[in-house]
């Protein structure tokens, strides 16, 4: 029979996975808005971002109550402490999707992404969404082996980010400073989004095994 | 007479202030390296960044032990939970100073900062260092009124950041794409550095009063 506390942990883990689903949707919509210069989609990402803010705040309040009332130790305490960090990471991931959406809104009806980098951003969006989906599964199942996969999958995003940097810095970049600046910020937002999934992977490994893997 | 647990809290608060001093030094040196294209100073920021990594990791381990052994409640629990977030913020602030130093190193012996934006970056460096110094005091004294000052002081950095953006986006920007991209990233690093001091201010208010102020 599951104890009451174990049920609470399961429920809190489910809430982290649900928050992660919000970041999947936010990133999918922000990337769609970016690739198609879709103002409505961009505004939707911005409009619903309060849901993730509220979920992160609720999570922390529940964790706080459980820490105060139940005084967990060992694995359960690692889960609570790790979960506080994970909740903050998920919150920030949602914020980064909003940053992407805001650039789309600021430049509308212009397209932010010129043809030269359309493929890179298509792939960045796909990688970010896939990485967030995998993070959701890792949070749902709290499987340290699967979490380890999050740590290496991030290399693809780093390669894409470096490639993007090289394109805008090339002598023959034809789109001027404004486009290059937008693209630089967008690249940074995608990269940071994935960095947070790596952090979550490290935290899940820690909370299940007690050992925090080295930073990339 | 102070209890043993209160002594532990004081010691942990002192450690957060000490970590904050490391971020003050890192930001002062990174800004000096940037303004003077000083490679040695940039490399020093990068070389010593492991100290902050280690301090953040030690802090979390101590907090974890205290949570497990002492099961604190109310104010003391808020301090531990808030401190976990603050430690992560300080760690990230050090990482942002390292990012600035790495841009200086990548471009050396070129100056990253052209004359047009030298004054803005001089002010951004000064604001970031001052804000980190004030954060150290807030952590040392855990004074919620003083913490509230951190929340508004950040407006100066936001103004500088907007001004920087306007300069590189102007039609007559003479330094090309590469310089504009570097400046965009640097501006973002300074802004994020100060965002974390605001987060720390909010956390200190919460841990002393039990009420978390709204996000700016």
From TrEMBL, chains A, B:
Keywords for the protein's UniProt record, in alphabetical order: Cytoplasm, Phosphate transport, Transport
Domain PhoU: 18-104, 122-204
Transmembrane regions: none
Cell compartment(s), UniProt: Cytoplasm
A Gene Ontology BP annotation from the UniProt entry: intracellular phosphate ion homeostasis
GO cellular component, one term: cytoplasm
Primary localisation category: cytoplasm
Family statement drawn from the similarity comment of this UniProt entry: Belongs to the PhoU family.
Subunit structure: Homodimer.
Function as written in the Swiss-Prot or TrEMBL entry: Plays a role in the regulation of phosphate uptake.
Protein name per Swiss-Prot or TrEMBL: Phosphate-specific transport system accessory protein PhoU
Organism: Rhodococcus oxybenzonivorans
Gene, per the UniProt record: phoU
């Amino acid at each position: 029979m599951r104890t009451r506390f174990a049920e609470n942990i399961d429920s809190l883990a489910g809430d982290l996975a649900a928050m992660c689903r919000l970041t999947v949707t936010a990133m999918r919509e922000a990337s769609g808005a970016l690739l198609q210069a879709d103002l409505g989609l961009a505004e939707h990402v911005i409009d619903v971002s309060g849901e993730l803010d509220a979920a992160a705040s609720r999570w922390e309040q529940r964790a706080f109550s459980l820490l105060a009332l139940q005084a967990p130790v060992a694995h359960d305490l690692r889960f609570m402490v790790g979960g506080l960090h994970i909740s903050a990471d998920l919150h920030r991931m949602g914020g980064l999707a909003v940053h992407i959406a805001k650039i789309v809104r600021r430049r509308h009806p212009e397209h932010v992404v010129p043809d030269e980098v359309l493929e890179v951003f298509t792939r960045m969006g796909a990688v970010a969404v896939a990485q967030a989906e995998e993070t959701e599964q890792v949070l749902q199942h709290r499987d340290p082996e699967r979490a380890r996969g999050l740590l290496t999958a991030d290399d693809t995003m780093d390669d894409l980010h470096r490639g993007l940097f090289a394109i805008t810095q090339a002598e023959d970049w034809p789109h001027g400073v404004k486009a290059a600046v937008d693209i630089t910020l967008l690249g940074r937002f995608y990269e940071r989004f994935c960095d947070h999934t790596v952090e979550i992977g490290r935290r899940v490994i820690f909370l299940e095994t007690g050992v925090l893997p080295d930073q990339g």
